[in-house]
Every structure is written in structure tokens, then in C-alpha cells.
Amino acid sequence: EILYDVEAGVSAMAKYLNIEKVDAVVISDGMTAVTGSVAGDNQVKLKDYSTGEVYTLGCENPLVSDYLGMRIDGYIHTDRITGENTLVHFEKKQTVNVTEILSDDIISTRSGSIEYETDKNSGKTKTASFSSDGATVMFNGVKTAVYSPSDLKPSSGKVRLVDNNGDNRAEYVFVYEYTGLVIVDRVSTTDEFVGSKLRAMDNIDYSESSNSRFFIMKNGDAITLEDLKQNDVINVAKSNKAVDGKALYYLFVSSETL
After folding, report:
1. Is 87 left (phi over 0), alpha (psi -120 to 50) or beta?
2. Which end of the chain is flanked by fewer CB atoms within 10 Å, N or C?
3. Lowest mean pLDDT among 43-52, 173-182, 223-232
4. Alpha-helical segments (H) within the chain
5. How many CA atoms lie within 13 A of 144 on its CB side?
6. How far apart are CA 195 and CA 221, in angstroms?
7. If you average pLDDT over residues 27-44, what whole number do you get?
8. Complete edge-to-edge strand list for the sheet that includes strand 180-188
9. How far apart, in whole angstroms, are the C-alpha atoms of residue 176 and residue 103?
10. In contact, 217 and 225? CB cutoff 8 Å
11. Given CA atoms 40, 175, 237, 99 in this order, what sign does their dihedral have?
């Protein structure tokens, strides 16, 4: 049996593992930011939910991009020698409600709300609400202050709403409008590109010179470009302008063939 002598008010994680738990919102994932400046490569920025303090941390887990704008329990490890702070684990707070709506299911959009069908052609609808003047709205990773309700229904894509405090009014709205379709022919790790079966102009260059950042989701998991397989189908959502000097690519991957 191992006994731990822990001081009052100090957790075992903090004393023995040098890990601190924080209640915070992910405000930058190293690709873009919902507020403030963009974190660097392999970094993340968290904003303490109570104090507003901002932490800039190392983080090499690409899945953190799926938590952008989300309130989390974050676990920060501080290296005793270098003093470097790293986000080693994170999980969604129980108060958080995330709603994802496919563009085909959207019935109408208004200032502060989106009405959508819960089951295709069922006639059953719900309304997702957000603050029309207080919510942060992002289009393909770009924060946008001026938009119309019609912009919230992409011609092809999806909308994600993040409600952090459980009041049924989202603080963050992420609109992903698909700008291209790629069926993977091959992935060249030597030349750093993904070849498309459809058109050569749709090839994805991920070399350093492309000045691009990528976030790739497949079956609910974040993957790398090298993980793509032949015949994977990719819905591409590309930012309409650079963020921190980089073009942003959101790749939503399916193994279903067309």
C-alpha cells in the first residue's frame, strides 16, 4: 500500500505529478482563435473560465481543434526543470452542449436562431439559439463580425454551436461551408501532397511552402494527412482569407465511396 501525505488544499496531482487542473475555454488551437492572437504551432491558448487569465501551453494533440471555443477541464503539466507548461489532457465540461447541424437539415435562419429538422423528412424540428450580438461566429475558421442570417446556412456543409454554460444559448457558432471535394488517389509523403482522383487542381499541397494549416477529422478522430487512405472522400472547407498568414483547411473525411 502506498500512502500519500498531501497538504490541505493541494491535490496529489499537483504535489507529486506537477499537474494542475483548470476550468477554461479553448480560445486558440494553433490554427485560429475565437479571441485574441493565434497560438503558435503545437501550442494552445486557454482562458480561465473564472478569472479570465490566459494560458499559452504546449499541445501536440490535434484533437484540441475539435474543442475550440469549448469549456474544458484541462490538465497542465509543468516541467520541474524547464518550467515549460503543457496541456497533457482535456475533456469537455458536463455543462457543455454541442449541436451539429447539416446544411441540408436547416429549415430557416434568423438573427439569433437556426431552425432545423431533427430527422430528415420527419417534419420534427428544433431551434438552436445563440446571442445575436454576443456570440462569436466563425466561417471556415475565420472570425466574422458582420454576417446575415442567410450566411448561417451553407449551400453544402454544416454548422456547429457550442453552449458552454447550459443556458441553451450558444456562445460560439462555427459555420463550415464545403469549398471542394477530393477523392484520394494517393498520399505522397516525399512531395507532401494528397493526389485527387477527380481533378489535379484539387490536389492538396501540405508542404511548408504552401503556407497552410490543416485540421482533419475522420470517424470522430483527428488524424494527419499521412493517415489518409486511397478512396477516402474528403469534404474540404477552406478559409476565404489567411489567418496569421496561413490558409486554413478543414478536412472532413469519410471512407464511403461515391
Report:
1. beta
2. N
3. 223-232
4. 12
5. 21
6. 22
7. 96
8. 204-205, 193-196, 180-188, 233-238, 247-254, 212-218, 221-223
9. 9
10. no
11. positive
Core vs surface per residue 98-130: b (16+ CB within 10 A) or e: bbebebebbeebeebbbebbeeeeeeeeeebbb
Look up cell 482562458; give the residue.
47
pLDDT at 7 exceeding the cut of 60: no
DSSP 45-105: EEEETTT--EEEEE---GGGGGGTT-EEEEEEEE-TTT--EEEEEEEE-TT-EEEEEEGGG
What is the tens place of the pLDDT at every residue in 226-257? Answer: 999 999 999 999 999 999 999 999 999 997 76
Query: Under a CB-based contact definition with an 8 Å cutoff, are residues 20 and 78 in contact?
Result: yes
| Residue that is written with C-alpha cell 475558421 in the block | 141
Map residue 213 onto helix, strand or coil.
strand
What percentage of the chain carries pLDDT values higher than 70?
A: 93
Q: Which residues contact 30 (CB under 8 A, 6 or more apart)?
A: 38, 39, 40, 41, 42, 43, 44, 59, 64, 65, 213
Query: Does 130 have pLDDT greater than 90?
Result: yes
Of residues 194 and 13, the one with the higher pLDDT is 194
C-alpha grid cell, residue 66:
475539435
Estimate to the nearest angstrom the gap between the alpha carbon of 75 and the chain centroid.
18
DSSP for residue 106: E
